[in-house]
């Protein structure tokens, strides 16, 4: 039997569907609830670092690791229709699954299964040439690697033809059509945790589902175990998977009561530790075996390099009737242990290790954040310096423009003053000429009437002199006001020049 096939009702979920710093679903929180993970391979989502991290999560939680190839459409999350040549499709599936297989090999984890993602799955159902291209690519990874899909007679027959195990699955968080066909996520209604529980229980115990119009249809599993898919990108996925886990456990107790796992230990003891000598080590491994006789190592503890820990292992061995053996002898398997106790013991150590790793990761993240903050601060300072330099340059240009404007105003004022002086001189000359003409006429009158004319002439001269003195005084006052105006303009220019020089020095 293929190792990736379900031997009882199981839960699978799409994992690693992020990219860089962007994360899609709560992968680590989902791991304790699922049996198999479909790991995105870099086309619709995922990148090398995320793929490696997800494989390590599967290894840590004892979850089967499968490939989840999709269309090369990260922007559309692999859910948009794209026309692809079958030869290219074959190469694309090889490329994606092969990349994940290399990462699995590096971590000592087996490739459990292959499950096409999103539009690639629907493309296979619409076009049998695409279906064959995908399945032929899957067949290159071995005849014991099942391909997951909803019940489909055509695909199941083609898998049999190519020698590939077919693993049926059910979806409980998206809808089915009246024909029993899957409806894409975008066209399905949002499923509640209660609905997911009811759908999972109905599929497991009754082999029935309800379509989007309320009708009942049969899945056709006829009592065979299958896997239930939960989409990790749904907002209520943690609540959904809790309900599905409850339904699956209830159904497994009724349908597959003998499929519960039994546990056994293997203990390897180095006598050097018990004798208190330097060196030596103790290893405790925990294994499980299911009703099919398939054995899986679910964990090991190597943190036993002290006399105290070795004594505890020795006491455990003695309590279970295990004789001490040298590390060079083959390990013995001891059955009949309480799996729950063993699991809790192992999970406790794993949780402690996870906390330590999380603390180290948190410290590293804090360091990276501090470093990023410093770099951001430095970049901000540089940006401020550039902005400040630009602002100072703009201020300098503005000051120069103001200085030139002030110079133009001073020149204009000088021209106006000169013009006013010329006009006043001209007016004064005209008045002087008029006075001279008046004097000439008076002299002529005096000659005609000497005495009378002489008196009038003297009186006129006195009046003219008096008026002239008054006009001269007015003219002197105006000249004084003009000089004061010119001095004020020069003071204003000098003030502006000093302010501009001060700004340049401060910059």
UniProtKB/TrEMBL annotation:
One Pfam family it belongs to: LamB_YcsF
Region (Disordered): 318-507
Bias type Basic and acidic residues, positions: 332-440
Biased composition (Basic residues): 441-459
GO biological process: carbohydrate metabolic process
Superkingdom: Eukaryota
NCBIfam families: PRK05406.1-3, PRK05406.1-5
Name of the protein this chain belongs to: LamB/YcsF family protein
Originating species: Colletotrichum cuscutae
């Amino acid at each position: 039997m293929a190792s990736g096939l379900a031997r009882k009702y199981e839960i699978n979920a799409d994992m690693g569907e992020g990219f860089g710093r962007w994360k899609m679903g709560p992968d680590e929180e989902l791991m304790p609830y699922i049996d198999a993970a479909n790991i995105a391979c870099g086309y619709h989502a995922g990148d090398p670092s995320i793929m490696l991290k997800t494989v390590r999560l599967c290894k840590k939680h004892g979850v089967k690791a499968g490939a989840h190839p999709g269309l090369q459409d990260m922007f559309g999350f692999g859910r948009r229709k794209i026309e692809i040549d079958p030869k290219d499709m074959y190469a694309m599936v090889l490329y994606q699954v092969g990349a994940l297989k290399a990462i699995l090999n590096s971590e000592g984890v087996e490739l459990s299964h292959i499950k096409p993602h999103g539009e690639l799955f629907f493309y296979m159902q619409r076009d049998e040439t695409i279906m064959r291209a995908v399945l032929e690519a899957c067949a290159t990874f071995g005849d014991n690697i099942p391909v997951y899909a909803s019940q489909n007679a055509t695909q199941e027959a083609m898998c049999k033809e190519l020698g590939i195990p077919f693993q049926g699955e059910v979806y409980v968080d998206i809808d089915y059509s009246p024909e029993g066909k899957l409806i894409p996520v975008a066209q399905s209604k949002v499923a509640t945790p209660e609905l997911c529980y009811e759908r999972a229980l109905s599929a497991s115990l009754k082999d029935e589902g309800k379509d989007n119009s309320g009708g009942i249809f049969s899945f056709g599993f006829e009592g065979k175990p299958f896997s239930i898919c939960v989409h990790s990108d749904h907002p209520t996925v943690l609540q959904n998977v809790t309900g599905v886990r409850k339904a699956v456990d209830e159904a497994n107790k009724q349908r597959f009561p003998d499929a519960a796992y039994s546990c056994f230990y293997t203990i390897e003891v180095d006598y050097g530790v018990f004798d208190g000598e330097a060196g030596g080590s103790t290893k405790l491994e925990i294994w499980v075996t299911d009703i099919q006789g398939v054995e899986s190592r679910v964990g090991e503890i190597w943190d036993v390099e002290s006399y105290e820990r070795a004594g505890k292992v020795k006491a455990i061995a003695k309590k279970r009737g295990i004789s001490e053996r040298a590390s060079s002898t083959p390990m013995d398997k001891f059955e009949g242990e309480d799996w729950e106790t063993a699991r809790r013991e192992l999970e406790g150590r794993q949780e402690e290790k996870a906390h330590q790793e999380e603390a180290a990761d948190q410290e590293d993240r804090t360091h990276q954040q501090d470093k990023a903050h410093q770099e951001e601060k430095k970049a901000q300072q540089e940006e401020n310096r550039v902005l400040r330099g630009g602002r100072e340059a703009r201020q300098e240009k503005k000051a120069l423009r103001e200085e030139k404007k002030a110079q133009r105003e001073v020149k204009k004022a000088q021209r106006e003053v000169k013009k006013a002086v010329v006009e006043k001189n001209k007016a004064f000359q005209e008045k002087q000429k008029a006075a001279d003409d008046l004097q000439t006429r008076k002299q002529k009158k005096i000659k005609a009437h000497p005495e009378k004319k002489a008196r009038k002439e003297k009186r006129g001269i006195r009046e003219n002199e008096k008026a002239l003195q008054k006009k001269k005084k007015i003219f002197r006052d105006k000249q004084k006001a003009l000089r004061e105006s010119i001095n004020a303009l020069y003071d204003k220019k000098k003030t502006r020049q000093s302010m501009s020089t001060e700004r340049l020095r401060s910059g």
